[in-house]
Amino acid sequence: METYIGKPVKRREDARFLKGAGKYTDDIKLQGMTHSAFVRSPYAHAKILSVDTSAAEKAEGVVAVYTGSDACGTFGVPCGWQVDFKNGETMREPLHPLLAKDKILHLGEAVAIVIAETLELARDAAELVQVNYEALPAVTCPKKAMEPSAPKVHDQWEDNAAFDWCIGNDRAEVEAALANAHHVTEMTYKNHRVAPNAIEPRSYISDYDVNADKWTLYTSTQNPHLVRLLLCAFALGIPEHKVRVVSYDVGGGFGSKIYHYTEEALLTWASKEIGRPIKWTSDRTEAFLTDAHGRDHIVHSKMGFDADGKIVAHLTDEYCAMGAYLSTFAPAVPTYLHGTLFQGVYTTPLIHLNVVAPFTHTVAVDAYRGAGRPEATYLLERIISKAAKEMNMDPAELRYKNFIPPFNGTTEPGYQTQVALQYDSGNYHGVLKRGLEMLGYEDFRKEQAEARKNGKLLGVGISTYIEGCGIAPSAVVGSLGARAGLYEVGHVRVQPTGKVSVFTGAHSHGQGHETVFAQFVADKLGIPMDDIDIVHGDTDQVAFGMGTYGSRSLAVGGSAIIKSVEKVLEKGAKIAAHKLEAAEEDLEYAEGKWTVKGTDKSISFGDVSLTAYVPHDYPEGVEPGLDFSSFYDPTNFTYPFGTHIAVVEVDADTGKVDLQRFVACDDVGNVMNPMIVDGQIHGGVVQGVGQALLEEVVYDGEGQMVTGSYMDYAMPRADDVPMIETDRTTTPCPHNPLGVKGAGEAGAIGSTPAVVNAVVDALAHLGVTDIQMPVTPQRVWKAMQN
Amino acid sequence: MIPAKFDYIKASSISEAISLLDKHGDDAKLLSGGHSLIPAMKLRLSRPEVLIDISGISGMNSITEDGNEIVIGANCTHADIVNSDLINSDLNILAQTAKHIGDIQVRNRGTIGGSLAHADPAADYPAVVLACDAKIVVEGKNGGRTIAATDFFLGIFTTAIAEDEIITSIRFPKVANGNYQKFFQSASRFAVVGVAAVKEGNSVKVGVTGVAGTPYRATAVENAYSGSSDAALHAVDGVEDELMSDHFADEEYRAHLAKVMVKKALEA
User: What is B7-53's CATH topology?
Assistant: First the structure.
């Protein structure tokens, strides 16, 4: 019998993707469908003096034009997470309107929607909408936004803070420990803003069926059920059972497609108004201007050490941009997904993080691959490498000295951090040791010394990360301000012929769920993968779900499926026992059949399935059918970890960084499909390298985006990265049935500081101690000049 | 990314294209490979009412030898140039340069005539036509003329081509010893600095693109050169007030890069 877990099974979904046969929202064409275009603000901050739609309304093919003065102007999309001020004041939560009415608060904010028979006509007519603006000064930097003279984003509050927040030990205690420390390392920098850049831009179609009084919303989302809930219960106030949300294939999300966006709600509202389906697909310019961005923290940090190099205290203050409005998960990102990881992999006894989260005249900042954890890792891994240099220690040695000792979370307890979380299991020594072996660290240091004599600037950078994913225990996140539970639903429907349909609330937009979920269900049931179908992305087919983000699909969604598989086998055993005229406890299940132990009497999974649906000869008191749905609410987050090491050569003449090697030793718990895990690590690493070397959203002083196209926003290309060398250690997760931790974000979390550490290491002998990301040739060259 | 409405006319001869240009004046744009024009139109930054497609005109896409010169039809794509045996052997610097333009898809569609007429200040070809002393051959309603490369580029997106004129070919002298050095902008991969150097004995001709609003001949370098790459220190002499600046490279860094890349070109 073929088994699948742990094998590099090729992805079933790739056949359709490689043939261009995927079914993305923009591929869908409905009878009578209209198209739409938005009129968007060319200013970051402005008063809307007037909007004249008369010419647009008369233009060829125009069906309707709506502005903020129409009924839709009173609706707004909600925020899904509440983080209150330290002093108890409630988080400031402005209405995020579907269309701006009086004021523009960020570049690209929508003022009107034009609906027409074709996309071309919609675009042409949108140009005829006359909007008079009075431009106002804008603030885009989160630190400047808190200066008393800063232009206000929302007039109703006395300053721009959405909230402030802290976590960890008492600040005074941490400050005292720093004052007494043998050595204190300090850093001030910006973890800069990046744009998510999914290859498929956001795309929506709303289809209102007058006769059924029902909507179908086709949307490129990472979590259809959450969109439906937010849309119905919060944005528009329409009955949830009247709305079906469908997201078939989605071309990448990286976080940016988690959120419920204004365009989804507006199209839903408007399709009932006009009684026809409406499509909108973002173009790349709109994607830069309106997809939620990532990062944007201004950081000031101090880490104290004793004479032996042990960390004694860590204090950090951050300004973290929220953007003009609070996106769905925005408040959680620089707080509960960030501060809770400040322990890192170290035994730091005293930690304090203070966060001020201001509104800015920019598009919203929300979760972007890793969401808060890359920012925490960047800080910890940069500052510890900087400290090693200052204390004249090897960066690996300083890490070893401070690691939390290995613990498996079963016979040894989890590790209680100073910042609320309890790590499940970990072996940080193991991944660093393996990573250094893979690199050949000692030999590299010799090579580096030789190269330096010849004027060659070689550097190595280490990063040992931990992240918290598999989000999340509902009660825990509820106590932290989440307005949703973070369980998952897994439904296993065994058909009469023994074929199996699995319905999952997780959503695949590149992760390979159709393959991985079928792998472990096949093994657990002892049947071929071909007998299993994975269904996702349709609220009418899947009972409920919380979607895919936070590396949660396998750890949480997979666990829910396992629960249902167990229920199937439990009921199947009752039917099998009846058919085999044996006691249930005398049966064993293996290779797709129940066998009476010690005999050759057996019945197959298929025969039991058929019996369940044709219950002529059937056990008393057992219902027909073989169909179970389960909710799985995890008991803890999962905590993958790893070591990433980068080797760079810096061109002394130009400052250009050549990334020569990248070594990643990750521990993501048990691995279902090593090929897919490698792929996730590769993609994540390149995304993290992109932030380190290339990508940056730049706004000018007026809030105009300088980097609003691929002519100016540098995405990593194949020739920017070397072959990525991967390996793994395996420390199973002790609290979920598959022992899995999650691999989706790890690459993006570990890689960024490794690259910057390597660049700084290459230039250390020139006195360079830090370089602002992205470390572009210009920045590197200027650092070398000083 | 939907362009504004436009009419499309496919010209079958140079004279037809010229008369169409004359008729439509400012409202018209010539379309060859379209790899600069179409993106600008999709963003509605460029909105011509008429596109005159010259890509099908016969006789404008050949690469031929004419005595000591190589004549390249304006409709030759960058890929045609990369793959031409004649250019690889007798004008190698141009093949080197064309390889740096865009990616395979861009090189398969974009043309040398279109690129020169567009005059993007960060394009690659200007450095080479300057360093080679190439001649741009144009035709208009009053007949043809030849524009020296040094007279051709007038500013950002501005050339000496008159409104009714079309580039029909570019005439290069054969060049034995030339090379092109490029430092690219990591997003667009256009040149932050592109330097073409053509050496003959102890003298050199140096064309520089990407650095100033108008590509230029680095005459100060040429005058100082007598075999040593130290002359590269003069890379931006005379253009100090015209240096371009953006978030990728400010004036100071761009001037430094110009010196570095000129030095590389002189040493290559």
Answer: 3.30.43
Burial of A132 (0-12, 13-18, 19+ CB in 10 A): exposed
Distance (Å, whole) CA B16 – CA B19:
5
Interface test with A, best of B185, B186, B233, B244 (most A CBs within 10 A): B186
Measured distance CA(A517)–CA(A532) in Å, rounded: 9
Cβ–Cβ of A710/B188 closer than 8 Å? yes
- The pTM of this model reads 0.97
Q: Enumerate the domain spans of chain B.
A: 7-53, 63-173, 178-267
Q: Test B256 with A714 for CB contact under 8 angstroms.
A: no
| pLDDT the model gives residue A786 | 84
Residue A402 distance to chain B (closest CA, Å): 38
Instruction: For domain B63-173, say whether CATH 3.40.50.300 is its number.
Output: no
CB spacing of A283 vs B188 below 8 angstroms: no
Q: Is residue A768 within 8 Å of A760, Cβ to Cβ?
A: yes
User: Which chain A residue's Cα is nearest to B248?
Assistant: A778
Task: Look up residue A306 and give its DSSP letter.
Answer: -
User: What CA–CA distance (Å, rounded) separates B75 from A152?
Assistant: 54
Cis peptide before A496 (omega within 30 of 0): no
A552 vs A473: CA distance, rounded Å = 11
What ipTM describes this predicted complex? Answer: 0.96
Spatial contact of A10 and A253, defined as CB atoms under 8 Å apart: no
B64 contact partners, CB below 8 Å, separation of at least 6:
B70, B71, B86
The residue count of chain A comes to 786
B28-31 sheet: strands from edge to edge: B7-10, B50-53, B28-31
Residue A691 Cα, gap to closest chain B Cα (Å) = 13
Q: Which residues of chain A have pLDDT under 70?
A: none
Domains of chain A: 14-136+200-251+257-290 (3.90.1170.50), 369-469+637-785 (3.30.365.10), 487-632 (3.30.365.10)
Residue A60 has a pLDDT of 98
Could you name the CATH architecture of B178-267?
A: 2-Layer Sandwich (3.30)
What pLDDT band is residue B1 in, cutting at 50, 70 and 90? confident
Single-letter residue type at A160: N
Separation between Cα atoms, residue A759 and residue A646, nearest integer Å? 9
Q: Which residue type does A200 have?
A: E
Task: Give B-chain residues touching A699 at CB under 8 angstroms.
Answer: none
Instruction: From residue B47, give the alpha-carbon distance in Å to each of A445, A512, B28, B165, B166.
Output: 58, 43, 9, 20, 20
A654 and B183 within 8 Å at the Cβ level: the answer is yes
With residue B198 as reference, give the H or E element that holds it: strand B191-200
Q: For residue B85, how many other CB atoms are within 10 A of its CB?
A: 9
How many angstroms separate the Cα of A351 from the Cα of each of A311, A333, A342, A380? 10, 19, 7, 12
- pLDDT for A479-511, tens place per residue? 888 988 999 999 999 999 999 999 999 999 999
Q: Chain B: which residues have CB within 8 Å of chain A? A: 1-2, 4-5, 43-44, 183, 185-188, 190, 246-250, 253, 256-257, 260
Question: What's the sign of the alpha-carbon dihedral A78, A80, A86, A90?
Answer: positive
Spatial contact of A648 and A754, defined as CB atoms under 8 Å apart: no
